[in-house]
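Entry type: protein chain
Record version: 2
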Amino acid sequence: MLLAGLVSACAGQTIKPAEMLDEKTGVTVGALQEPIEFIEDAKLGAAGSDRRSTFAYLGPVEWDTSGDITYGLWIHVAPGNDQAVGDIRAKGGASLVLDDGPVPLSLTDAPQTGSNPYHPVASWGQTAYFRLDVALLKRMASSQKLILEFHGVDVPAVDFTPTQDVRDTLTRFEHARGITDD
């Protein structure tokens, strides 16, 4: 009976939102407990090369500074091999592909707080914050397609797809942050 309950709980697992107060700055930070995992689309060579997968991680963030609310999109890329994904911080280096088309991402600075809402998975990976607003967050949550695409100089575009359906996770984040359609 207990095992059946655990299996059913894990089958529909979504990543839950979390909130923390940065005591040094007084900023309330809303994030997911864990970022959403993406995996590089398989592009094996003719010989079916044995290469490790590259992962990317995405997490929405809300910073509330005494009622002044701003949003950001935390992205981390952890290469599984010695091939770089390109510079995600370069102009035009990262974009989202949603049901209604591509969305270029623009870098932003995160407010200075005593801790980060997410921790990089790999020390050798790349991490950056991108601009996010409520309209884009809603588009992401309602889109059946959510692809992270990275571009680079002398590097072809690399696409990453989520390892699970993320619509419920992003919708829960919206509700936890008080973002409604009202």
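Comment: Confidence is low (pLDDT under 50) at residues 1-12, 44-51.
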